[in-house]
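> @MW can you paste both from yesterday?
MW: sure, first one:
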Amino acid sequence: MRILLVHNRYSIRGGEDAVFDQECDLLRSNGHEVIEYTKDNRQIDNASLVKLAANSVWASDSYSEVARLIERSKPDVVHVHNTLPQVSPSVYYAAARHAVPVVQTLHNYRLLCPNGLLLRDSAVCEECVGRTIAWPAIRYKCYRESRPASAAVVVSLSLHKAIGTWSRKVTRYIALCQFAREKMLQAGLPPERVVVKPNFTRDRHTDADLNAVRGGGLFVGRLSEEKGLRVLIEAWRSLDVDLDVVGGGGPLSDQVRAAASKHFRPVGFVDDDALTQVMRRAAFIVMPSLVYEGFPMVVAESFAAGLPIIASRLGALAELVEDGRTGLHFNAGDQADLAAKVRWARDNPLRMAEMGQRARETYLQRYTPEANYERLVEVYHDAVAALRP
């Protein structure tokens, strides 16, 4: 197949950027022709809010450029990842003009919430869910901490919902888990158009002995409020279990460094090879997130390493981590409950090792490049068939 992949890269590289690059490589390695159309938010940090506002509703340059790309390359399908703010939903219309099916990956909850996280003041917020116009997002400055920028996103979301962009111009949506699918249906998406395909990661552990003795815990991620770092810090004040905290940046970096102790060990940023080794040594990984999440790459990476996850009983994590089978759940935001689960993990190493084996089995069944490729191409063929007269 010939696939046009569209993505608006973020100012700070994150999971969506990584998934876009991975899927490009995956498709090319399986013999498909991939054409990339990307914008980069690092180029607009000083752009005027007026221009960003206009672009988020309709970016005429993106429409023209994508239309010309389609005319030239004649793709079988257009697969869009992120459109905000430079690409905009105009690319859907460029594809429709040439009768090319559109697949849109729902990496976040943007159609329900202008900041995409369903988060405000470090807690789950659903004030805009179900509203025709997401006025609270403007009041609380939910996008880029700016009322004008938030208003631009609200206008874009409301306008495109009103004219049927979300319901008519996207042939198939990809949700990353069943929880995300159910949430996105609340945005009014046609259920028959929303399918589930998780993220994936390549296997770095084929030659490793994942049954070797392991010890201690691990946190991997951005050092920020929504990831539950304050809960993690407070829980570890009462624990005598080693924890390596891997993360190269975030607004709570100073607090994490200040909390360093014999058992709470900030590591900072590590490259992929070093992270692979750290994951092989740990007995479990902790994900104390305060938000619903989409499909954190850390889940697939942990399962690939045979690492059970101690996770918040919240949103996607409650679905992706099976309590007592591939990890343990604790009440989100509850430091005492987290500490209790960590003590149980310390006192039951054989049970945790069994959960790690099941986590590895789950990875091999669901989250390998091979399994993901089959599902992705299935979605593409389904989209092409759906657009045929």
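MW: second:
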Amino acid sequence: MAAGQLARGNRVSTVLARKLGGELLRMRDEAGLTQPQAAAALSATAAKVAKMERGWVPVRDPDVRILCDLYGMADVKAVERLLNLAKTDRERRKAKGWWNQYPELRSLVEYVALEDIATGVRSWQGAFVPGLLQTPDYARALAVGNADWEDPDEVERFVEAKIARQARLTEGTPIDLWAVVGEGALRQLVGGREVMRVQLAHLVEASHLSNVKLQVVPFLAGSHPGMTSAFSVVSFTEPGAMDVVYMDTTSSTLWLESEADAARHNATFERITRNGLALHDSVALIERIRKEL
């Protein structure tokens, strides 16, 4: 079972299933119907409907369609979005992804699994380079500095897993990454000058990928909306359709799964980007900092 998932018996609650269940619950409430009424339409029990709404079980396409009809959901695109969400969750549950080989990923496991099936990620980091853009030496120095592992072999496995993630940028159907980084992350000497020189050169190289947008928020931007926290918004279809927000702190991993949370963080991300430099100016600043080293 992936870390970050909730388990009860042999059932698993996933981020995507909880999001789907929350939308089904909202629709039922708006329709003024009860769980027993929904269960009757499905020829099931109220307990099954409760499990679906709480994300404990995968949801079949016919059940999604029946409930949408029952709740009066006539928007074809909205129904299709829920079907896609249900399908993605079912695929996610069955996946035997490479990330499961790395217990060293810990709370990152579920995030990496979602990243593997996502179409886009918007990432804001003020303190360090985002994982999808880290070099091995930078990732290693960051892990050692965090002092999360005592065994050097665990550190190496963690670094190996983080670098494996980066295949999403170039292989198959590449993920769209919009990364915004604070200038302080570029000047912090993680691993020393040579490690940072290579890391900054890697950022410049990555910025040339057609599916990567890289912006820097300079010190001169002053106060801005991203100063209090870092976060990533993960998308699975068209922008904003079924986004989830991921926030990782020293004490916990937080998933924000409602449309309101996603909308709020997407809006915050947009405001942060307005404080950032233009793409070519961002690359120029990275180059300048690298030369200063």
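> thanks! The domain at 6-94 is CATH 1.10.260.40 (434 Repressor (Amino-terminal Domain)).
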